[in-house]
Amino acid sequence: MELATFLSVTIGTKRGALNDFFKEEQQAQALPPPLRIEIEEVDFGRDFPLRLYCLRLSRSCLALFNGGEKTSDSAQDGETSIPFRQANEFAKKILEALNQKQIKRCSKERQILDYYTSQPYLELF
To answer: Given the DSSP bridges, would you call strands 50-58 and 28-31 parallel, antiparallel or unpaired?
Structure first.
């Protein structure tokens, strides 16, 4: 519930996807935020067991990937190893498509659009 509240209330309604909320995980990012970040709406505590991988495209656009239970000190090991690798592969492809002008961001509508037709992508992969 803490992670869902954080996504819907803190990021979705109150503050947006602030860069400080995310842990860098190579090309992708991870939630919950680092321990040094205090958020009044939720308390992740010291031993929060879940990781959710994503790509922060802007303050108003966040691509969510998969996640899992953090069973190791390293994201590359344990239950999060496969979601970690997949998230980084997805993030790499999205960033390449943005750089090659195959897709673009639409910050007002929180969508990713085809660069030439401006039609929204509902699924990227």
So the answer is: antiparallel
pLDDT digits (tens, 9 = 90+) for 59-109: 888 899 999 988 887 778 888 899 999 999 999 999 999 899 888 776 565
- What is the distance between the alpha carbons of residues 76 and 17, in angstroms, rounded to a whole number? 24
Contact 66, 87 (CB under 8 A): yes
Asked if residues 90 and 83 have their Cβ atoms less than 8 Å apart, the reply is: no
pTM, 2 dp = 0.81
pLDDT digits (tens, 9 = 90+) for 99-121: 998 887 765 656 677 777 777 76
CA atoms within 13 A on the CB side of 54: 21
Find the helix or strand (DSSP H, E) in which 55 lies: strand 50-58
∠ CA 97-68-32, nearest 5°, is 75
Closest CA to 112 of 96, 100, 99, 94: 94
CB neighbour burial string for 70-109, b if at least 16 within 10 angstroms, e if fewer? beeeebeebbbeebbeebbebbeebeebeeeeebeeeeee
